[in-house]
Amino acid sequence: MILLVREDREYLRERGDTLETDLGVLEIPEDATPGETLETHLGEQFEVRELRGPDLFNHLERTGAPMMPRDIGLVVGHTGIAAGDRVLDAGTGTGVLSAYLGRVGARVTTYERDPEFAEVARSNMAMAEVTDLVDVRVGDLAADLDDVVAEEDPFDVLTLDTEDAPAVAARADELLVPGGYLVAYVPFVEGTRAVVEAARESLGEVETFETIQRRMDFDDRGSRPGTAGVGHTGYLVFARA
């Protein structure tokens, strides 16, 4: 997949596809390369860009509220997830987190209870070109814990974005390698406290952060934080085996 960009317009297409807009028809070459400029039959230009993580966030099909890039950055930064790591995830949703982790080279097994959501997530993994690294399973990790513990080797990181996160966190030591990390993304304070208390039963080094970010505005009048946009997104709980 590549991006075709012109000012405030952005289209996601395959090489060899045809783009039809009010600016004309563009036949995309099979060998289109990032940085190249392509023209429609009306002479309107589009720049070719390689698909990257933030582009995935903007273009993946949504089945709910996805984890924001800033939260994913904290997950990677605090756990050091890298190529070759094995990640167990619960609450796939759109699959944004799984896609990001797959693109850094981690091998992800992710559980989604809704079959339709899981199918959308598989399609999104194909768009992100990580189908060989991300295994989207239909199921409830909390309900399948005994089987996972018995059948799977321990994981390097366990990520949770689901209502039953406390039940999984309480047994995280059975799922993780020594030194492995638990990460839970929780939207409400009550749920966050429940995860913290559960994590303390089996793990150490439990830390919790609220993720708040403000965009800065710079104009002729002066400089200040922006007055619009999402500040709070959720809470991140980290613990270590």
UniProtKB/TrEMBL annotation:
Q: Which PANTHER family match?
A: TRNA (ADENINE(58)-N(1))-METHYLTRANSFERASE, TRNA (ADENINE(58)-N(1))-METHYLTRANSFERASE, MITOCHONDRIAL
* Organism (species): Halomarina salina
Q: What is this protein called?
A: Methyltransferase domain-containing protein
Keywords from UniProt, A to Z, are:
Methyltransferase, S-adenosyl-L-methionine, Transferase, tRNA processing
Q: Name one GO biological process term.
A: methylation
What one GO molecular function would you report for this record? methyltransferase activity
Which Pfam families does this one have? GCD14
What Gene3D superfamilies does UniProt report for this protein, alphabetically?
A: Vaccinia Virus protein VP39
Indicate the segments forming the tRNA (adenine(58)-N(1))-methyltransferase catalytic subunit TRM61 C-terminal domain, all copies.
Answer: 69-217
The yes or no answer to whether the keyword S-adenosyl-L-methionine is present is yes
SUPFAM superfamilies cross-referenced by the UniProt entry: S-adenosyl-L-methionine-dependent methyltransferases
* UniProt cross-references to InterPro entries, sorted A to Z: rRNA_Ade_Mease_Trfase_CS, SAM-dependent_MTases_sf, TRM61_C, tRNA_MeTrfase_Gcd14
